[in-house]
Amino acid sequence: MGLLYTILNGVNTTDIFIGLLTIICSYVIYFYYKHFTRINPFPGPIPIPLIGSLAIFLEDIDAWFYKLNKLYGRDGIYELNIAGNRQIVITRAEYIDKFLVNDGSAHIMRTANNGLLDLFDLHNKGVGLNHDYKHWKFNRQIFSQAIMPLSLTNKPSNILNQLFEEMANYWIDLKQKDDNGSIIDMSVWMRRFTMDFISLLTTGKHIHSMYHYCQKLKDEPITKEMIESEEFADCINTFVSDNQIIFVPKILRGLPLVRPRVDHLLDNCGRLYDKLVEIIRKRRREIEKSIINGEFDTNTKQLDLLTSLIVANTQYDPHPQKNLDPSILRPMTDDEIRGVMFDAFVAGTDTTVNTFCFALYYITHHPNVKKKLLEEIETVFKDDPTKPITLEDLEKLKYVEAIIKETSRIRPTVSMISRYTNRPDEIAGYKWPANTLFIMYVRGINNNPLYWKDPEKFIPERFYNSQEIHKNSFSMFGGGLRMCLGRKVAIIELKTLLASLYRKFDVELVDMQAPVKVETSTITVCKELNVKLIPREKNQAKH
Ligand code: HEM
């Protein structure tokens, strides 16, 4: 202690300054030495020590990636450094094959987990950001067991029909007396709609977020339910729009620009987790009560998702699994269910909202597409605009499906999908060490003129003949072992929504000149889409 005191006592400000400067210079030299001697050097922006590419913090991520793709993506591979992490960006369909196959577990992880996943209790919870292979496998198996059978039933369509009717009535209610239609921000309404949908699908309970939003628009007195409902919607939106901060390296957590954002998101997630756990515990008690009373129906294939998750791998499981690794044949804890429910709300709401809004934007800008869409609706539903939509009807809506795919090709809401290697591998003809992070740049591949003629043109007919589509040149739901678990439900939802909307309303953009307003975090979000909805007269669907 005495020696340390003597040393420190003899140190003046200049010495401290010189010491710090030496440390910083040594780090910068070390950083650039590592950078210029890296394995498989590819073109890309020159990184700044600790920060990597500053542009990612200053520009919209999607717009920045699009620009980089034009600058560096010509040969199908380039690289970036984000907050000190090297990322290899792939823009050719031929190079992503290994990430999209279902065998092996070499490319199963999505992130390096050197960020703050643990702090948010996401590193071994749920599915989407789960970094722990064993826990991910267990959660994925049970989530899949619960959601896939649902998409084979009319349950999602029935909920969607009921919710669409409700929403259409609010829209008509909001119409000004002398106006021929209602002007609404579709992106906000769709967020409330998908929230109500996912809640009904997962818990069987209506949280009335559309109703509360409508009350708010009509300036009705604010009630406790309205506040709670808006808070829940805000928590989901905040997580969707601000979650990149979770991937900032731990070492940067205390920085003045980082700390408040992390604390804000932590507080947000805390409230969301508490709400979800409250819902789960309540449902568990309800199930226990119905079992005691002999009222629990194990034969039904139409349990809501939450009930399926609670009874999975118990004697009340309606889809008992055999021939599986015994370590994943156990029931889930409340915390594990919370992780999966969190995924359903976070991964299952905004993705659909944005795809739907982008589709409307393109349909309104392409009268020929709108005409064919209306003709298909007319053919399938004849002149009955009220008949509830069934799975059978959805099967027939081929052009609607092509519109959804073409929208996702040209403007994917998930424009980047990452994979992290846990062992050395050969990708794009190069040998890579373990722990390399790859980004499949979906928007670049989906719009690459190598695979698509006139890629910038909106032509749904491209998807009529799937054999003509180059392998891996279109991705909406990713692929391989981590492929989207909600893909079937999402397609049901999008098709039902588009058909229901155009059966009942004519849709016009309020500003046809304005580009679509987007903001990117891990997904590309439609920030605003102001539309005018004009109720259709009977038999008017063709125009
Ligand atoms: C249009 C709507 C949707 C789009 C475009 C979409 C897209 C995606 C994509 C690209 C992935 C990553 C796949 C990969 O890494 O290969 C993903 C993962 C996932 N999605 Fe979706 N999704 C949509 C709707 C939904 C819905 C409705 C749900 C649930 C109700 C859902 C649940 C999930 C989950 C849980 C994962 C993580 C799977 C894993 O990591 O194992 N998604 N989604």
TrEMBL record:
CDD domains: cytochrome_P450
Ribosomal protein among keywords: no
Entry's transmembrane regions: 16-33
A Pfam family annotated for this UniProt entry: p450
PROSITE patterns cross-referenced by the UniProt entry: CYTOCHROME_P450 (PS00086)
InterPro entries reported in the protein's UniProt record: Cyt_P450 (IPR001128), Cyt_P450_CS (IPR017972), Cyt_P450_E_grp-I (IPR002401), Cyt_P450_sf (IPR036396)
Claim: NADP is one of the keywords in the record: no
GO molecular function term, any single one: monooxygenase activity
Entry keywords, A to Z: Heme, Iron, Membrane, Metal-binding, Monooxygenase, Oxidoreductase, Transmembrane, Transmembrane helix
Cofactor(s) of this protein: heme
Binding site for heme: C484
Domain of life: Eukaryota
Family membership noted in the UniProt record: Belongs to the cytochrome P450 family.
PANTHER family: THROMBOXANE-A SYNTHASE (PTHR24301:SF2)
Protein name in the entry: Cytochrome P450
Organism: Glomus cerebriforme
Organism lineage string: Eukaryota, Fungi, Fungi incertae sedis, Mucoromycota, Glomeromycotina
